[in-house]
Amino acid sequence: MLSFNALAARPEFTVSSVDCRDDHRGWSAEQPRADVRLVLVRSGRFRRRVRGVCTDLDRTIGYLGLPGEEEQFSHPAGGDACTSISVRSDLWRTLAGDAPRFAGSSLYVDGRLDLAHRRLLAAARDDGTEELVSLVAQAVQQVVTTPALAGGGDEALVAEARGVIGADHPAASGLIPLAGLLGVSPYRLSRAFTRALGVSLTRYRNGVRVSRALDRLEAGEPSLAVLAADLGFSDQAHLCRTVREHLGHTPTALRRLLRADPAHRGDVTRDRRHGGDVEPELLV
């Protein structure tokens, strides 16, 4: 018996947790699927057979499933739990090229890929796009012998992307639409930001949104829910986590700090310096 739990759903990809409770040595057939999917095992083990080739899968070996494949599965060791990442065709082409050649479908899950998997699961509740692109790109490097070329001109590309983000263009809402607007692969754009600025595109974009949140809080914005929606956060909790990560304060504490009179701010500074009591919400 299979159970699916959606962890993230975007127009370009979905991430699901798949739990299987089957316990059988025979082969069960699955209906061919139309998507590209990357499957990584979190616990347990099972077997997969495609075109007569059988692979034993566990936490050290995952697989890449391609459209139209006739898959068969066997679970001689009991149940298992996996992460299944379904990648839409447009995103897949930007990462693997228009006509990729494959060295195989099995993936060795080394430390880097394991860490990328864990980071994706941790980030899925907020966005996770950059983590997903990084993970799939690592898989592409293993199984695709003709990956899409990365290209050059990082500085100019990053400058153009920063302009789009600064202008609050709708495509700046995420890595994939921004890369599409600029005519490059998401992987190239993500790598370019890290190389040129030393921070990920997601962190840079969130930094811009946090700065805009400060402007609104300073101006007296009364509703954090409205603020989150206006600035493109998934919800109020996402806004609060991001603001605290970047600034060390909650939005509520920032609102009080920004609207406090100068004398009170001086008292807070002196209290910190001399070890006095400080209002808990103002602590970094």
UniProtKB/TrEMBL annotation:
Keyword DNA-binding carried by entry: yes
Keyword DNA-binding belongs to the record: yes
Any GO molecular function: DNA-binding transcription factor activity
PROSITE patterns: HTH_ARAC_FAMILY_1, HTH_ARAC_FAMILY_2
SMART domains hit by this protein: HTH_ARAC (SM00342)
Gene3D superfamilies referenced in this protein's UniProt entry, alphabetically: Homeodomain-like
Chain ranges of the HTH araC/xylS-type domain: 178-257
Matches recorded under SUPFAM superfamilies: Homeodomain-like
Keyword line: DNA-binding, Transcription, Transcription regulation
UniProt region (Disordered), positions on chain: 265-284
Segments traversing the membrane: none
Compositionally biased region (Basic and acidic residues): 265-277
Coiled coil: none
Residues making up the signal peptide according to the UniProt record: none
Record-given protein name: AraC-type DNA-binding protein
UniProt organism field: Lentzea flaviverrucosa
